[in-house]
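Tutorial, part two.
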Amino acid sequence: MTMTIDMHDDTEKISEEQQQWIIRLIDHAADLLQLTGEVECSLTFVGNPRIQEINREYRGIDRPTDVISFALEEIADDEVPILPEEGEPRVLGDIIVSIDKAREQAAAYGHSFERELGFLVVHGLLHLLGYDHTSETEEKEMFGLQEKILSTFGLNRN
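Running the prediction step on this input gives:
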């Protein structure tokens, strides 16, 4: 499995070291989730004003949020799935994370910024892979996977 992450830091607040461990975290998640072949996604770090614009435009909610995912494999009833050609990578979609929200939530929950940032990145990745938390059963599965990925990577709540 080869995972390619197209990372952009619009905030210029994520250090090179942090970017490297985020890549390792996503690779770790991909291994645990047993993804195969060539897989790509984009990951963008923004501030609260930008994520609020995106949230308003795409979800009709006029406030900042912590993470938004745009899954390319998610299809509506009237859409045809876009499948990669033979030899082409599987493109999952885009994850957008608010660095401001990550800092706020880390402080509110009493854990490190890295733990919160890791949580949001993994949460976004799972959404790209079709996981959701709209029902109690889905939430239990998705949050259980998140915790497994984060704890086996060493990002614990304390």
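The longest strand covers residues 38-46. In part three we will examine how such features are distributed along the chain.
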